[in-house]
Amino acid sequence: MPHIDDMKNMDLGSGVTIIITCADPRANPATYLGLNPGECPTIRNAGGRVTPEVFTSLELISAVMPVGMLVLIHHTDCGGLYVTDDDVRSALSERNPEHKDGIKDKTWHSYKNIGMDQSIKDDVAKLKAWKFLPKGAAVAGYVIDIKTGQLRNVVEPNF
Ligand SMILES: [Zn+2]
């Protein structure tokens, strides 16, 4: 496995591909894309949504290696499709009523209300609007079907 100093000097072509995807263990891109260790930096959170924390990670990664492409991948049967933010708020408030006020305005970026394709379109739009998007970096959005392993393109890469 290359050291980070080696990666800075590696010929990465137009740069690394960064994957933004869900934390769901059924949807591990290293498995369904057959990635080699160290091949694609991967940012994962519940739902694979583009949150402020995703930009924090992208900023750090892009400061240490050239970035050629951002690939957003959501997946079928995602938990984010089955709950609304109000559902999450209710569950947490019921469990810990003493912290109810602290989460009254919080969002978990669930996407039951907008659906799979719209969540991908919205998140790709956020990535394309990132103020530090490296010049020439493409952005694309896909859905992985966890039953068939097939990727479906929702937003074409903008090379
Ligand atoms: Zn998921």
Automatic annotation (TrEMBL):
Signal peptide bounds: none
What cofactor does this one take? Answer: Zn(2+)
Which UniProt keywords are present, listed alphabetically? Lyase, Metal-binding, Zinc
Residues that coordinate or bind Zn(2+) = C22, D24, H75, C78
Q: Which CDD domains match?
A: beta_CA_cladeD (cd03379)
Recorded catalytic activity of this chain's protein: hydrogencarbonate + H(+) = CO2 + H2O
Q: Which Pfam families match?
A: Pro_CA
Please name the InterPro entries in this protein's record.
Answer: Carbonic_anhydrase (IPR001765), Carbonic_anhydrase_sf (IPR036874)
Tell me which EC number(s) this protein carries: 4.2.1.1
Tell whether Lyase is among the UniProt keywords: yes
Q: Name one GO molecular function term.
A: zinc ion binding
Q: How is the cofactor bound?
A: Binds 1 zinc ion per subunit.
Biological role stated in the UniProt entry: Reversible hydration of carbon dioxide.
Q: Which family does it belong to?
A: Belongs to the beta-class carbonic anhydrase family.
Stored PANTHER family: CARBON DISULFIDE HYDROLASE, CARBONIC ANHYDRASE
Q: What is this protein called?
A: Carbonic anhydrase
What does the record give as the organism's lineage?
Answer: Eukaryota, Fungi, Dikarya, Ascomycota, Pezizomycotina
